[in-house]
Write a structure and sequence with these properties.
The protein has helices at residues 2-23, 34-44, 49-62, 67-70, 73-88, 94-104, 108-115. It is an all-alpha fold and 123 residues long. It folds into two domains: 1-28; 34-115, Cyclin-like (Cyclin A, domain 1), CATH 1.10.472.10. The protein has seven helices and no strands. GO terms for molecular function: cyclin-dependent protein serine/threonine kinase regulator activity. InterPro entries: Cyclin-like_dom (IPR013763), Cyclin-like_sf (IPR036915), Cyclin/Ssn8 (IPR043198).
């Protein structure tokens, strides 16, 4: 009897694995947002290291979610910078805003939407 339960569970797990692989298009090469984040922080030229650290932490926390599967790496980096600037109450330089939209191909509405996907500890 126990063997039958084991076989059923095994089949359910295999079915779930195939479903996940099909959903991912069998592409297991996940590109992480660290490189676009570092490049953007360098271009930002904001004197506050806290902004960079906050953005880095948001990206790290995002790895515990499906964020990297749902969005492109440079979009995640843009969302992390945007969210870090909001948390730190830092205004990004005006010349950066021009580069911002061109570099990441994002809109303010998209940035606001992505912020909902970042895991944030609210105390």
């Amino acid at each position: 009897m126990k063997q039958g339960v084991y076989e059923q569970q095994k089949e359910l797990i295999l079915l779930a694995e195939r479903l996940v692989l099909a959903t991912l298009g069998f592409d297991l090469n996940v590109h992480l947002p660290y490189k676009p984040l570092v490049e953007a922080i360098k271009k930002l030229k904001v004197a506050q290291n806290a902004l960079a650290q906050f953005a880095w932490n948001f990206v790290n926390d995002g790895l515990r979610t499906s964020l990297c599967l749902q969005f492109k790496p440079h979009h995640i980096a843009a969302g992390a910078i945007f969210l870090a600037a909001k948390f730190q109450k830092v205004e990004l330089p005006s010349d950066w805003e021009k580069v911002w939209w061109q570099e990441f191909h994002v809109t303010p509405r998209q940035l606001e939407g992505w912020c909902l996907f970042f895991p944030i500890l609210v105390v």
